[in-house]
Amino acid sequence: MTAEDEAARTSPAPVVLVPDGGRHSHDGAGERIAERLLDTIREDLGRADSKAAVLLSGTLALPAFLIGWHGAPGWRGPADVTLVLAAVLWAGAVIALIGAVMPRTGTRRGRDEVTYFGDLVAARDLTRLSARVADAGRDPAGWLLVQAVDVSSILSAKYRAIRWGMGSLALSAALALAWGLTPR
Questions:
Q1: Taking CA atoms, which of 21, 42, 51, 168 is between 20 and 30 Å from 124?
Q2: What is the reported pLDDT for 95?
Q3: Using one digit for the tens of pLDDT, what is the confidence trace for 129-180?
Q4: Alpha-carbon 154 to chain mean position
């Protein structure tokens, strides 16, 4: 066995460009990348749901904690306006976090694709639905990317709602703390 034979046996396969970004390649590289991307987005979606649920639980418990710590408000002066404003901001935080936890039932895409349960429920014509599924089967990487875009828009909306909820909750907590430290 010569050195050339040994090098040919142990060297990795040459790197070549995948035609059309991998969408129509025989090795399925584009599909694997799209699947991995979609899996990552779905994992992030699960984390966002968990974060929102935990934050919502804590947000709902906050008034009970504050009332237990400081007692019920007596509404004795202008300082109590800060508590009213804190309550309004708290309600905004609850609404935003509920919005993050609620399931999304629509997509932003303009293409006529079958990517989630709403597409199946809305389909009244099974022949047309079958044709749409067959179209997706001809370009699996494209279908996966459309689905990744759909799930990404859901993820983006959830994180936006979490940010709004946390911002509102932080302001609410600061005002409630200021109210609690104000002598009456």
A1: 42
A2: 94
A3: 888 888 888 888 888 888 888 888 889 999 999 999 999 999 998 998 888 7
A4: 5
- List, for residues 100-113, the tens digit of each pLDDT value: 998 877 776 666 77
| Exposed/middle/buried for residue 57 (C-beta within 10 Å: 0-12, 13-18, 19+) | exposed
Q: What SS3 class is residue 72?
A: coil
CA 35, CA 24: separation in Å to the nearest integer?
A: 15
pTM tops 0.90: no
Q: Are 111 and 105 in contact (CB under 8 A)?
A: no
Distance from C-alpha of 155 to C-alpha of 42, rounded to nearest angstrom: 8
Residue 123 is encoded by which pair of tokens? 């389909």
CA distance 7 to 92: 66
In the block, which residue shows the tokens 């302001």? 171
Token pair for 178: 């200021």
Burial class of 158 by CB neighbour count within 10 A (0 to 12, 13 to 18, 19+):
buried
Q: How far apart are CA 86 and CA 89, in angstroms?
A: 5
Sequence letter at residue 35: E
Paired tokens of 3: 């050195």
